[in-house]
Design a protein that fits this description.
The chain has 6 helices and no strands. By secondary structure, it is mainly α. It has a single domain, classed as Four Helix Bundle (Hemerythrin (Met), subunit A), CATH 1.20.120. Helix 2 packs antiparallel against helix 5 and helix 3 packs antiparallel against helix 4. The chain starts with a helix and ends with a helix.
Amino acid sequence: MNLPNKLTVLRVILIPFFVVALLWDGGENETLRIVSAGIFIVASLTDMLDGKIARKYNLVTNFGKFMDPLADKLLVCSALICLIELGQIPAWMVIIIISREFIISGFRLVASDNGIVIAASYWGKFKTTFQMIAVVLMIFNIEALQPVTTVMIWIALILTVVSLVDYIAKNHKILTEGSM
């Protein structure tokens, strides 16, 4: 269990604390919203940090290849579902985002069965970054920043669809031919 993997596990462990802090008192407690935003930011930063450390020090493992993207999906999807509960994002947007994650996970599973590793694309990385920024803005829920928050949510949604189309376009042979 190297440092990048420990950071990935930490990200997963932080999720229930984040959810409880955000949803406590129906999201009305401002102090707990700040705490939840802090937990989410720390968890998000571990995503960036674990990858950089793993690549820089050649600490890439199968555990990390599997758990890192799963931890990201769990973190972001948990946050978005909580934000539906708080009435801050429409369910249809979250359904699109979560659907994309299932589709890409399915692609990766089929590719893995064929000995192919599908690396994260820049579109996917941009998508994750904008989703995380949008989530933080929604957690803080600052009235003066609502236009910025709305724009960030829409950018995240557009990047979600663009990254899905990009994955399918680049990897369609996985489904049609069984290999690339």
